[in-house]
Amino acid sequence: MNERFFSIDGQWNVVHLPEQPNGFGVLLLGDRNYFVQSNNQSWLQNPERKLLLQELTQAGYTVFSSNLYGNHWGSEPACQLALQLHHVLQRQEILNDKVHIIAEGMGALVAIKLIQQVPEQFRSAVLINPCLHLYRFYKKERKTKLFYKRLLYELSEAYGVDTSEVEAKVLKKNHLWQLEQSPPIRMVIEMGSEPFSLEDHGRRFEHYQRQKGMEISLSLHLPKKPFSYYAHPTLSHFKKNEKLDKKSSL
Q: 169 Cβ partners below 8 Å, 6+ apart?
């Protein structure tokens, strides 16, 4: 892969460039502790995630991602920076206006907020073991003192509020989805996945999307599958929605 690193608003970003571009971009939103540095990116350090990146670029996708201020938990600054990165890439690369999203874990919080804000800019999304209900996750972590203190601190930092205000000013405002439009979304979830359980996150969001009449699919996978196993369902979802878009434009 050929990578290009650059900074926006003090945050490092990376573009993974394919040898033979297919004209489609993919916004990658990583999980907790995901990072992009001046010359490195956490998925490049993980052999299985690196394999998935390679599958994407070999298929012709231009993959771009940002550090997004660290453990952002879906904060508005993270969402705005992701949008800014998308707009920068539209100027720098020859890409279709509508991009795909891959979001893992915590990254799904940004993905859903972006789809809520500007659904017309996204072609499809794949959510891998996603965190989709921040309030339920918070209540679960509250049962373990060490995890709870860490999460409370991260939420306070990400949203710029005092720890005593997190529940009122962050969590109760983030516990409902407000999607009126949505590109097709596919969730791929490992059975028994932690810390974002299937019932609290995947099943609840699937039910919401179906109630709203939006396209959603959920596939369950056996535990301990290599992460690169998700490459096939991801690529098939992308290609399916590229074909549908071409047909609708005829």
A: 159, 161
Q: CB–CB of 49/227 below 8 Å?
A: yes
For residue range 122-170, list pLDDT tens digits in order: 999 999 999 999 999 999 999 888 899 999 999 999 999 999 999 888 9
Q: What pLDDT score was predicted for residue 244?
A: 55
Q: Where are the domains of the chain?
A: 2-132+182-248, 133-176
Answer yes or no: are the C-beta atoms of 111 and 127 closer than 8 Å.
Answer: yes
Go through the chain and tell me how many residues it has. Answer: 250
State how far Cα 55 lies from the chain centre: 18
| Average pLDDT, integer, range 74-98 | 95
Report the CATH fold assignment for 2-132+182-248: Rossmann fold (3.40.50)
Residue at token pair 């608003």: 9
Give pLDDT, residue 247. 38
Considering only CA atoms, which of 180, 204, 212 is closest in space to residue 127? 204
Task: Name which of 89, 109, 99 is nearest 30 in CA terms.
Answer: 109
Structure tokens at 79: 């969402």
From 82, 72, 3, 42, select the one nearest 227 (Cα to Cα).
42
State the pTM of this model.
0.94
